[in-house]
Write a structure and sequence with these properties.
26% of the residues lie in helices and 21% in strands. The chain has 303 residues and is an alpha+beta fold. α1 (4-18) packs parallel to α6 (216-237) and α5 (193-203) packs across α6 (216-237).
């Protein structure tokens, strides 16, 4: 699943490739992908991309229309979605089917006097989604807050306002365990399954340590782990082409997805706890006092 660092890298990539370009059209290929109807998707045609923003894991293209109020073309890539940039899209329109293509956005042709730094005519991007659980979502709205998932987002962990004191206030009285708190988008925006594992490994904390029981020093350590883990992931992804971001993410992970491999810090074997539709990875020596966690949903994790 694309998380904050990958979406931030996509935001940076698209800023350089889209801003100042006119949208020729957006074509939904999968019937499930469009979640709004007013304004219609056709309203994006003829508008110019004036900015690209990120809200947690949501990607937001601002589209200016002369004297008209701006529109926002917003995407959430969900678990298996991705954005594929193409310098020249196929001339023939895509056909609906069972493939991964969900939506195609095409840019207008450039005038002959376009500056050298502009992209060539026929460029654009596809939104794709692998698997059978179709959760990729596209919205056309006048205000990003009209998207329910954005309206309920918690603070961005890279924002200046996300201080140690702000994190302490979030955790105060929290009854859930750390893994669940970090993944809850209404609590902290942008962190998912992979980076919550990475953050907890850096902080040397059990995934199921009660979040409301952290000491002041532990809260400081968790805050530092959040900022450094996400910041370093963004730095690794900066300048990487959109098509290579998935591989970059995987290569930079230290524990997530590395069950059975040695921990890069202590050399202990990375363990896994499996759920019905996901799993978490951790290092017993670094995070749970050397004790492995029982690998079942109903297990009680170490404090």
């Amino acid at each position: 699943m694309p998380e904050l660092p990958e979406v931030e890298a996509l935001r940076d990539f698209l800023t350089g490739h889209l801003v100042g370009r006119e949208v020729a059209g957006a074509l939904p290929v999968s019937f499930h992908v469009l979640k709004t109807y007013d304004p219609p998707l056709t309203a994006v045609a003829g508008r110019t991309v004036t900015g690209v923003a990120r809200h947690g894991k949501f990607l937001d293209l601002t589209l200016g229309g002369g004297q008209d109020p701006p529109l926002h073309l917003i995407t959430h890539l969900a678990r298996a979605g991705w954005l594929r940039w193409q310098e020249k899209l196929p001339a023939a329109p895509p056909r609906p089917g069972k493939g991964p293509l969900a939506l195609r956005v095409t840019l207008a042709d450039l005038p002959p006097d376009s500056s050298p730094g502009k992209r060539p005519a026929g460029a654009g991007f596809d939104l794709t989604e692998a698997g059978t659980q179709k959760r990729l979502a596209v919205y056309v709205v006048r205000d990003p807050a009209e998207v329910p998932g954005i309206a309920r987002l918690g603070p961005d962990p890279l924002a200046d306002a996300f201080t140690v004191e702000a994190l302490a206030a979030i955790l105060d009285g929290e009854r859930r365990q750390l893994k669940g708190v970090l993944r809850d988008q209404s609590t902290i925006a942008g962190i998912g399954n992979a980076y919550s594992d990475e953050i907890l490994h850096v902080a040397r904390m059990s995934p199921f340590k009660p979040a409301g029981h952290l000491t002041a020093s532990e809260t400081t350590a968790l805050h530092e782990a959040i900022r450094t883990t996400l910041g370093e992931a963004i730095a690794r992804s900066r300048g990487v082409a959109a098509g290579k971001l998935k591989a970059e993410k995987k290569s930079g992970l230290r524990v997530h997805g590395r069950t059975g491999e040695p921990c890069p810090v202590c050399g202990d074997t990375i363990r896994e706890v499996s759920y019905r539709d996901s799993s978490l990875q951790y290092c017993p020596t670094c995070q749970t006092g050397g004790k492995p966690l029982a690998d079942r949903r109903t297990s009680r994790f170490l404090k």
